[in-house]
Amino acid sequence: ELVRQGEALKRTEQMVDKMEQDLKTSQRHINSIKSVWGGLVNYFKAKPPESKPEQNGTPEYYANSRLKEAMMSSKEQESKYQESHPNLRKLDHSENNFSKGGLVSSVQRDSYPKNQHLRAYHQKIDNNLDEMSSGLSRLKNLALGLQTEIDEQDDMLDRLTKKVETLDVNIKSTDRKVRQL
């Protein structure tokens, strides 16, 4: 949603820039109509450069790299998360699920209690904590990416606000000049 809003802001900024260019062109025409002298000045004055037409309307909006990386990383981890999430996976209740040593190294095995049931629970708790850590890391990266994107869009909004205010003043001025004609 944030990327979509960024695209909309970019399109809006381009439309405001186009309006500013059109307003300058109309100002030249008003000067030509207003007096012969204005027409002569416009004739000898260099024409403003034409802006290049955008490909398919507007160029692509690119979200910041931090948000892209966080989103891609999150999508990669999503399948692993769904496989291991207790409510999203098929539970296996066998007693020897963790105690066969396949999932735990020999160094870790020594740190667990000797009792098989306690060892299985400790291993299960450790695995759950690892999953929680992974999920929190994923959320942190997404949050940092979102914050960066929000900061960039906030700057874009400030720029757009200044442009719109300037455009509003210029439109009112041009409107007054047209009414005087």
UniProtKB/TrEMBL annotation:
Stretches of the chain forming a coiled coil according to its record: 2-29, 143-177
Domain T-SNARE coiled-coil homology: 1-33, 119-181
Recorded topology in the membrane: Peripheral membrane protein
Gene Ontology terms for molecular function: SNAP receptor activity; syntaxin binding
Keywords: Coiled coil
Record-level GO BP terms: synaptic vesicle fusion to presynaptic active zone membrane; synaptic vesicle priming
Similarity-based family: Belongs to the SNAP-25 family.
Name the UniProt record assigns to this protein: Synaptosomal-associated protein 29
Organism annotation: Buceros rhinoceros silvestris
Organism lineage: Eukaryota, Metazoa, Chordata, Craniata, Vertebrata
